[in-house]
Amino acid sequence: NSIHDMDREKLFEKFLEDCKNRKEWCGQGNPNADILIIGQESTDISEEALIRNIMLCRDKKDRDAPRPIDPKNKTWANYQELLDEIYCRKSEYIDKWDFEKFAFTTELSSTPRKQRNYKEAKPSIKERIVFFKDSDFIQDFSVIILACGGYIKNDDKVREIDNTFHVEFCKEYGSKESKNRFWTHIDKKDPRKLVIHTRQFSNGISKDLIKEMASVIREHLRKLGLI
Question: If you write DSSP's letter for every residue of 6-27 in order, what string do you get?
Answer without folding.
Answer: S-HHHHHHHHHHHHHHHT----
